[in-house]
Design goal:
The protein has 108 residues and is mainly alpha-helical. 49% of the residues lie in helices and 0% in strands.
Length: 108
């Protein structure tokens, strides 16, 4: 237990997690941006802090991989991560009535 104490904050939370999902944590700004997107109706309903942590973890994963595999096309990886994230958070579009199946997807 003594060894564990040094990795805890003042409230007994693990130091690595303390503040991580709070408004002042590492990904707090991203969580606030996600919440703002929800307020204006651009993003679907989800927990902004959890999604900010997930996106942050994905960013760290890509960068970590790139550091050990510098041949990774970082621009392409960033683009894929952006697309992945937008698909995960955007508000689903409402479908048109039955005739929508004959409309090209690019129009929807």
């Amino acid at each position: 237990m003594a060894q564990e104490r040094h990795v805890r904050d003042g409230q007994g939370e693990p130091a690595a997690l303390a503040g991580a999902a709070s408004p002042v944590g590492r990904w707090g700004m991203l969580a606030r941006l996600l919440a703002d997107g929800q307020r204006v109706g651009v993003f679907r309903e989800f927990d902004p802090q959890t999604v900010a942590l997930a996106v942050g973890g994905a960013i760290e994963g890509v960068v970590s991989h790139w550091l050990t595999h510098p041949e990774l096309d970082l621009d392409a990886a960033a683009s894929e991560l952006e697309t992945f994230t937008l698909y995960a958070i955007e508000r689903p579009r409402t479908r048109l009535p039955a005739q929508a199946s004959s409309v090209p997807r690019s129009v929807l």
